Amino acid sequence: MAIDIDQPGLAGDGNSDDGFARLFEAHWPQIHATLTRLVGDPDEAEDLALETFWRLYRRPPRDRGAGPGGWLHRVAMNLGFNALRSRRRRQGYEQTGGAAWLETTAAPSPEEAADRRETQARVRLTLLELPEREAQLLILRHSGFSYPEIAGALKVAPGSVGTLLARAEAAFETRWRAVGEDQGERR
Amino acid sequence: MNHLDEGALRAHIDGQLDADGARHLAQCAACRARLAEVARLSTVVQQQLGVLSAPATPRSAGAAWRRFQREYQFKEHNMMTSFWHRFRPLALAGVGVAVIAIAFTFTPVQQAFSQFLALFRVQQVATLPIDFSRFDSVTSDDNAAAMRRASQAFADTVEIRSESDLIETVTDAAEASALAGFPVRVAEGGAVQHVVRGGSEFVMMLDAEKTQAILTELGRDDLVFPVEADGAALTVVIPTAVTSAYGECPQLATMRDEGRRGPVEPGDCLVVQQLPSPTVTSDKPFNPADLAALALQVAGMDADEAQRIAGQFDWATTLVVPMPRDAAVSTDVSVDGVTGKLITSTASGPADGTYSLIWAKDGFLYAVVGTGDPAQGLALAESLE
After folding, report:
1. Where are chain A's structural domains?
2. Local confidence band at B348 (pLDDT 50, 70, 90 cut-offs)
3. Is the pLDDT of residue B146 over 80?
């Protein structure tokens, strides 16, 4: 999947609305899709994506060399994970065994959907248990980002992405089991 | 060549292994055996992550852009033209002048704090009626390009040291306190929700030469930057703030909700905002009143009036809230054991029926914003514990 997150000419200067509109158009689909994967609810993802662009609009990063793609994804990931943490706290996952948490994602057919929601909840809880950079890395990779794009968004050396990814996947698998046991105990 | 490490093997799965690595892998049975294990783990994790799906139908960028323009950019634009734009010259020339948009636009005070504050340490609040019609020469369309260049020049003097990503909505005051790092005061009845917003720290370099160039850009080369302020580095710290909603309020966490939910009925929603006093420190002594006088002249006052008004305030301890002379009135009120300012919009103003109650106490800055009868806001303020 080719995602050109830093197309030349689209690194709109913050002073021109035309430039910003082009930049918005170019980056919106990726930012919104990635945030939807992360938080589940497309409406919430839209709010978070708009907040991301608003931050870019209001205060563009000083370092324009790399283009805004990496910056946008970094900020979007931060906002997305903040939203997940906030939701976890608000819904008191610890007390309710995840019931409220699960209700936040849409459900078509009863049983399969319930399974799917439970798995989604488990994935998100597992991600929240990881160091933030590892969690972000997994989401970006899962969203189809190339190694250079991931390196740009997370500000790591391109050559280290494989190593970081291997480590993140191993950590995910360990936490995944622990979260599953927690869920099992609560049922 | 050494055996491939897990990172290289993982990169191979994504087709990112270099040619040397690939050659080694082709010849090394041990590496291939380990590759199988890395691939298995990777497949399992990717399958688990696979349940997180992108939206079934992508949101159109066009629709999102229109919403952005309507709810975000328009707001910014409104603020820019109606207030911030007008006061950029104030801010760029006159750090020490606290510039808050409360009176004119009644934007959420928190947002105003984060964008406009530039003061020393707040111990009291004052209002400064301004005749906005006199700014028109500064903000006319002809001057828009010059304003933009001046704003950019201004922005270049500012270096953001830290900016928190924290925006959390919580319903529990204890939780809000823990997040904010100070005890959040709660009024009678308890707040429906608290929004905790992280602070920021930036450094602004005052540079006589650059400022003079900006003044020239604005067509005001008759004004002179106070030489003693040249080279001063001002460190502005805006602490984490808490916005608490009482009654039937729009969602506070993001501004979009205001637009979506429409106007709130008068009296239904009261918002209390609190934060430790923002501070400005300078590495070099100078008299902030000189900068304030300069700023007021840039904003359209004549030299004598600017000097007189700048001399009225203790700029080191006073949060000066500019308000439009023709659209808002300010009165002293006794609140929370101190004297605060109640700013009410007049019938002719753009924010008819809105009021802001602002006060400083014990190193904290407070504001209550509401619509309808200010007595409600005062009562709420008095019940803060």
Report:
1. 18-104, 110-186
2. low
3. no
Give me the percent of chain B exceeding a pLDDT of 70: 68
Looking at beta carbons, which residues of chain A come within 8 Å of B44?
Answer: 173
Q: How large is the average pLDDT for residues B148-171? A: 71
* Predicted local confidence at residue B301, as pLDDT: 78
CA B68 to chain centre: 18
Contact across the interface for A120 and B254, Cβ inside 8 Å: no
Q: Looking at domain A18-104, which of 1.10.1740, 3.30.70, 3.40.50, 2.40.160 is its CATH number?
A: 1.10.1740
In CATH terms, the fold of domain A110-186 is Arc Repressor Mutant, subunit A (1.10.10)
DSSP string of B296-335, one letter each residue: HHHTT--HHHHHHHHTTS-TTTEEEEEEETTTEEEEEEEE
B196 shares contact with chain A (CB less than 8 Å): no
* Chain B residues close to A29, C-beta within 8 Å: 58-59, 61
Would you state the structure tokens that stand for residue B2, as one six-digit string?
């050494």
Percent pLDDT > 70 in chain A is 75
Q: Which of A140-149, B136-145, B161-170 has the highest mean pLDDT?
A: A140-149
Give chain A positions within 8 Å (CB) of B5: 163
List the single residue in A with minimal CA-CA distance to B168. A86
Are the C-beta atoms of residues B278 and B122 closer than 8 Å to each other?
yes
Region of residue A157 (left: phi > 0; alpha: psi -120 to 50; beta: else): beta
pLDDT value at A13 more than 70:
no
Residues in chain A closer than 8 A to B157 (CB atoms): none
* CB of B47 less than 8 A from some CB of A: no
Residue corresponding to tokens 């995840």: A98
Question: For position B296, what pLDDT does the model report?
Answer: 77
* 8 Å CB contact of A123 and B51: yes
Q: B58 and A160: CB-CB below 8 Å?
A: no
Q: Kindly report the pTM of this predicted structure.
A: 0.50
Please tell me the distance from the alpha carbon of residue B197 to that of residue B27, in angstroms, as a whole number. Answer: 56
Percentage, residues of chain B above pLDDT 90: 19
